[in-house]
Structures are given as structure tokens and as C-alpha cells.
Specification:
There is one protein chain. By secondary structure, this protein is mainly α. It has two domains: 64 residues, 434 Repressor (Amino-terminal Domain) (Orthogonal Bundle); 33 residues, no CATH class. 63% of the residues lie in helices and 0% in strands. The protein is built from seven helices and no strands. It is elongated, with a radius of gyration of 19 Å.
Length: 115
């Protein structure tokens, strides 16, 4: 059986949890109580000092009303902006000519008339 290294960034997941919690005006105590964990555990999760399993991450996602994939990837596919960063990063690696070509192709696919 081959081991696959997933390279999960638990520190980044923790930062996203902390940000979502803060945006709702919730304290660590309130979130910890809601999902029935110790505040010290939640603190370690938010600092990236411990791993978190998917079940617990799902509980946090439900409690904070945040799609679980937002904690894991930082993006939500239902959000129309979900590929903005990926497109930007891709375009930065292209020459100006390639950027123009990609732009023109995107306009054709989107059905936008050229001026």
C-alpha cells in the first residue's frame, strides 16, 4: 500500500477558523461550547498546534455556517470569484502575448463581442 502525503496545512486551516469565528463575533469559548470541546483544544487548532479530523472540522463549519471546503482550500466553488487567484497566478507566469491570447479566448467562451 502506497502512502500519499496530503501536505495538509493545519496552521492555515486554523487561521481560517479563527477568522470565520471572529467575523461572527464569537469567542473561542462560545465556539468550543457549541461543538462540545475544550477551549484549550480549539485554541490549539486555531494556532495550528494540533491536527483536526474531518468530523470536527465539519462541526465547526456547521456551527459557523461556513462551507467546509473554505477551511480546507480557502475557496468556495459556488462563489463566482473562486478562480480569481488561480487565474491571476497563472497569468503572472505568462508573457504579455500569452496573456492577450488567454483574454481573447475567455471573451470568446463568455460570448463577449470584440470591440
Amino acid at each position: 500500500m502506497e502512502f500519499i502525503d496530503a501536505n495538509v496545512d493545519f496552521k492555515l486551516i486554523g487561521q481560517r477558523i479563527k477568522q470565520a469565528r471572529a467575523e461572527r463575533g464569537w469567542s473561542q469559548e462560545k465556539l468550543a461550547e457549541t461543538i462540545d470541546v475544550a477551549t484549550t483544544y480549539l485554541s490549539r487548532v486555531e494556532r495550528g498546534g494540533t491536527t483536526i479530523n474531518l468530523k470536527r472540522l465539519g462541526q465547526i463549519a456547521i456551527a459557523l455556517d461556513v462551507p467546509i471546503e473554505e477551511f480546507i482550500t480557502g475557496i468556495v466553488k459556488e462563489d463566482y470569484r473562486y478562480l480569481n487567484k488561480e487565474f491571476y497566478d497563472l497569468l503572472q507566469k505568462c508573457s504579455k502575448d500569452k496573456q492577450r491570447l488567454i483574454y481573447n479566448i475567455a471573451r470568446i467562451i463568455a460570448g463577449v463581442n470584440f470591440v
